[in-house]
Batch of 2 targets.
Target 1
Amino acid sequence: MTAAAVPATSPASTGEQPGVRLARSRRNAELSLLLLAMVLVAAYSATVEATALDTVTPDFWIPTAALGLVFLGLHLVIRWLAPFADPALLPAVALLNGIGVGFLRRYDLAQAAPADREHLAIFAGTGGRQLAWTLAAVMLAAGLLVIMRDHRSLSRYAYTLGLAGIVLVMIPAVLPARFSEINNAKLWIRIGGFSIQPGEFAKLALLTFFAYYLVRKREVLSLASRRVLGIDFPRGRDLGPVLVVWIISLLVLVFEKDLGTSLLYFGMFVVTLYIATERVSWLLIGLILFFGGAYLAYVLGSTVGGPFANFYLRAEIWLDPFGDPYDKGYQLVQGLLTLGTGGLFGAGPGGGQPTLLPEVQTDFIFAGIGEEIGLFGLSALLVVYLLIVERGLRAALAVRDSFGKLLAGGLAFTLGLQVFVIVGGISKLIPLTGQTTPFLSAGGSSLMANWLLIAVLLRVSDGARRPVTPGGPAVRPSGGPPEQLHGAPTEVIRP
Amino acid sequence: MNAPLRRVGVVVMILFGLLFANLNWIQAYKADEYRNSDYNGRVQVAEYERKRGNIEVGGTAYALSKETGGKLKFQRSYPGGEMYAHVLGYKPVNNADIGIEQVENDFLAGTSDQLIGDRVKDMFTGNKTGGGNVLLTLSKRAQETAYKQLQDNQVGATRGAAIAIDPRTGAVQALVSMPSFDPNPLVSHDTAAASKAFNKLEQDPERPLANRALSETLPPGSTFKIVVAAAALENGVSKETRIPAGSSWTPPTSGQPIRNAAASICPESQVTLMDAVTESCNTGFAQLGVRLGADKLKEKARQFGFEQDDLTVGQLNEGGLPVAASRTGEMTAPGGSTDPAALAQSSIGQRDVRMTPLQGALIAASVANGGSQMRPYLVKQLLAPDRTTSYYTAKPRELRRPVSGEVASDLQDMMESVVKNGTGRKAAISGYTVGGKTGTAQSGPDTPDHGWFIGYVMDKNGTPISAVCVELERAGSGGSAEAARIAGRIMAAVIADSGGR
């Protein structure tokens, strides 16, 4: 599936090329790739029914068609408002999202009583809800494309978004556990039967703020330095913001009991800092701070306990999940067994037993899918993720302004890091943490936030590949004139 | 800013490379280990996908599977409860299986190579026919009698065993170990409850899970005299030969005198071999054993089946419930020369002589069957899932020939005298010829004696019907007489079940 996507890339899309060579919009390539993705999803759904029900119901194509329609709608919005956006992004994400909905529907089939299996309503169960969330999330992404005609307009709201991000991160930590805790991780806001994961949105808001802040501070952060052992280290007072983010992420680790989110925020910040300053020292400082902090939390957890005990426990499970296979290590052990059962080729879509794996619809969806599509299928999914990330980074390379570079680079990296944290967690590469698998896991917050992230990447890639009128400013759609942006320190690199 | 962006791209590729390498480790290298892991619920679910076959006795299923509608589609149940527990064993969801459930697991589960034809047929017809059925040799009536009589024994023994075999074929007619257990809680789909029930049984000091009839050895006491008598008959002693006896005899090198169970037993200086067996004369057999020597005794015991440690009771080709080896033990002094004291005590089934109840029944069966010992077995037939095809039918075969027909005939006379005139009167069945030998074995300095009885029954034409061994652990006084009574009941039950030949 991904092999087909690669040749569609324009070889001329690297940013340093003169603008005139970027003039092809490649929307038709996007459309045909999208159709291909939908055909794959439909084939997946049909295989699931054929295996799990021994028959393909006449309605098997309806969820796929609903997804296809809304993706087609987004494609039309892109055609209209972002005609030069990267053509591989939408089809790749559509494929992942379609497989996710298909697998969740497959999980519902396994859960349903045998008599009801052939008459599962289209919006019923986890799969149906995920389908509805997808429709909403894609519309939200389309809405963002409509409102935000130029990614630089985001910088206008940088401080608001930064504040909102911090508040969103903090809410679950300060809320009482009964409003915020699910499965021993305080990551939620729960009101009635409804729960949202504010961290998913906070990640976007914080990154926008980081990008804006670092563009303004990059000169001082990258120039004022002391040289120690051949590496340039920043001045002490410039370390302030990094330390603040470090402390916030450690607080998240301790009070929200979630290593993954903490690692995600901190990784996101350090990498954008590195991109902005081009100083390897920031990476070193970041890594040392993070691993030092995590080790300290581990040691404190084993001696002091209290808020650190959860992290210690998770680390212990990671080190030896089979030490307590029926209780503490149960999830991870079952995840590993599920992956192992899948083997190279998997049991085939619909052929596995996802009901045996706890949290298969959320944290462990990658393992649940892996049982059915095997190592080869999972490798393909990883390649699709990698494609999205590298396409995002490519947009960052090509875009002309520093804010756009940092924004797209940071978002793309964050997406990749999140995939690494959760997939690494369920496969015992790193300690398991409660992250969602982007576009696959059941959950509206995650879907919406990640579709918004894709919308921003689409917008930035459109800005990057849009032809530039020689001598004048970049052609802009009829949105707000960026010249009036208050204090926007964007650099427009003109050829 | 482009240089760091490119490096970030490389970092992401490295991270994904790590994920990919790790997935290879799990899904390729460790795949088989994880797929077949004990913690992997799929292994069990797959086992419960197909209906497991029955284990049947006399046309009644005593182990069967019923549909549940749950995740594990079938629930195993054992309607016989405690009565058949040690033969059938159990097949729990998570824990280890045992008994016929274990040894015939492949056939019962339907995964046996023999059933490949049925599986192929399933593929075409779309039916799930389930596993094969195992038919046992047990006699319902004999099994029930053995279980009830052991439970209700009149000497208050809490531990014991009984086994009955057909001397002509080796087919096991009854096999009971006391105390028993109910296997049903062990196969509960609530695996925590099942494990709890199992742990409780395993920690019970009475060890209800042990199959005493096959895997526990105890000193056989006077029942071992049949082996000594057989060795004597082959070495120039006839049943009418007078052998030295007396109320007490002290072996040459030991200060420990050997006495009889009661002062009325063989106080004369000489008795016939026949009388020595009938009365169970310790002093006579101690001296006889010393005269024969350790080698001849050990050799005769070996010919009866002692020292064999690879016997199994199941099908006749291979597999089955393991049987512990019976032992004659050390009879030599530290220097290597024969120790007369040890030999004397061994000759009356004490010292280090140890025997399983099955071995006792095999001795009686060999005598009844004219000197030919048939290999014991439990599985009579393996029936296809649809019950039309038989995949295995037991063809009885001789295991060994411990004594000649003549010696066997002499031994029969002596054992029948035991039941007619001697210590085993309670085993008598009117209208049938019953032979046997009681045994009372010291279990320790301060604990009650074990009571034994080995014996057989023949019809009027001299055709052997059943050979039995009953053992009551720490039964105290009257233990061997009670064992004889129970043995008589079991043999009567076999006769009734086979139509009173």
Target 2
Amino acid sequence: MNEKSLPFVEKYRIESTEDIIGQNRAIQEIKLFIKTFPRKKAIILNGPPGTGKTCTAVALAKENKLEIFELNASDLRNRAKLEEVLKPVTLQQPLFKKGKLILMDEADGITGTDRGGLPELIALIEKTKFPIIITANDIWKKKFSLLRKKCNIVNLKNIEFKNSIEIIKKVLEKENQQISAETINLIAEKSRGDVRALLNDLESVISLGEESLKTEISEREKQEEIFISLKKIFQNPPDSKTIRAYDNSNLDLNEIALWIEENIPLEYKGKALYNAIESLSKSDLFKGRIYRQQHWRFLVYQNFFLTAGISTATKLKNKKFTSYKRPSRILKIWLSNQKNAKKKSIIAKYSKLCHMSKKKAMKDNFILPLILDNLDEKVIKKMDLNEKEISYLKDRKAAVIIANNLNKFRLEN
Amino acid sequence: MEPSNIWTEKYRPQKFEEMVGQDDIVKKVQNLTKAMNIPHLLLAGPAGTGKSTLALIIVKELFSTNWRENYLELNASDERGIDVIRQKVKDFARTKALGNVPFKVIFLDEADALTKEAQQALRRTMENFTTTCRFVLSCNYSSKIIDPIQSRCVIFRFKLLSQKDIEKRIKLIIERENLEISDKTIETLYEASEGDCRRAINLLQASASISPTITSDLINTLISSAKPADIKIVLEYALSGDFLKSKEKLLDVMLRDSISGTDIIKSVQKEIWNLQIDDELKVKLTEKTGEIEFRLVEGSDEFIQLEALLASFVLAGKGLK
């Protein structure tokens, strides 16, 4: 492949850390990490897509004449695989005295199927003789908590607007091309600090003309909003396009299912309601099978029941305007979790002290405020109950007494 | 009123002699413990019959004052994955015990909640660390424990506590706590406990927090309020044709008491037979409930599956009018 036919993202991949724009502080920290290795064995480059995480790692390897050893999301990264591939690399002395750099790219992609991958990675970090660089979009996910403790974390920011403009101008100069200032701004704005997206858009503008960007955006404006999709499904008679009703939507099928769930009762009643929810239930059934068996072919059925299934629930379609509602269930669950946090922490402390599972303790939840009432200081300390939890229990006790009219049993002393 | 302790802990038997019921088991275990060498144990039986209590007595007898260092208690229904076995159990099992006894003890409560994979992992661990660690497993149903583990354990089957056993314990508490309660009320308490000693003591303490004079009436009020009538309301809304209200109520119930979809389905299935509808319809709705329970296992979103069930109740209700 000659240089000319390379896509921009490859052609203009930066060669040295000097060329990385707008990440000065991060670059300094990473260089320090390499210099002082093995004081810290691993570093995490954390940041949104297209901010130069992988580029930095590759450029750094080049500058320090390190042989790079990369594993990314396309590789299976379970425990056995990591052990098989990386262990020899982390432990052996380099050939020809050349050092190595291990790049664990796209750590977010280490998923359920990569069973034991993360613990193995942590074990490797302890033993490695070479620096390890890990890249991730969101290192603050819970599954990374142990990994975070073992590593330095460097955050890469989205590229600032003025830097995006700078990059566009540089590429235009090298390509010997000119485009209007307006389009340059548009590309920079649209990229939102993602250099990869920026280069892709720029490339299509150069090869297809400035109009392409505008028409593409107006296409996007034409994209069916979820409301239009819902109207099509609920109110139009099914036709050949029904099963593609969500093709242009920005939402994924799981979110769409929540929209459908929320709005079925607004459109359908009786038998139609029953049929529609049956379809929703079947769609969810296939979703469960996809997740459990990783059999993505079932996606067809998940979509089918969510489109045609819902649409054919009745022949008598409502034609009146329906103001569709946002899905409310997730919000309710979140609110309730907030509200139940105290209850849960009390249950956890109670179950620990009383040698039982939280699940079992939950069954006593109702009378718990009565049992945990007026506790001895020593017990409170042993249970580690705090002031807020104690006053929560008092309130709950009062509520239980009132709700069940228990006052009539209390003796007047 | 004087500050109190949690009675289930305060009155938890601390010695073999204090245990009520299970006499044969206690005698055998006591002999094993005296020899300072226990095999792996599997304690099977209903809730509140003394399994955890026996496990605690064993370690206290074995290690006396430093039992805490040599004892790990894990609750399998809270931590049921394979990782727990691999990490916590292995880490604890691989180090040597402190003191005179050459092994430590791990108590795995509600071991029947462990996944099959975790049980497989446990089986190897039990063998590999036998010299440094003994396992005491508890479960409600021994059939949920895989055979290889059962064959590595001495199994003790706990019986439901008899009325006499529970009353013995209750009377001791009544005396120590200066409560006023008639024999008839103690019987009510036993019946409410369904042979679960923890439940009996909890009910007693909850009643006592309202009044030191405890009547059957008070106990019955507490029981009936603890039993949620909510599922019935959910189903009645659905049968009356109000899908939205029934769905809303269902979500409320599930969130308020953190009830899983599987538990909801169980209570729906029980409740159907008590509904004021035609028997034939009950059969149809139960069949549908079974179908939804199956989808709950296969699908991904519990609530959507339960909604499908409610919709079929709505439809059935339409036919009633």
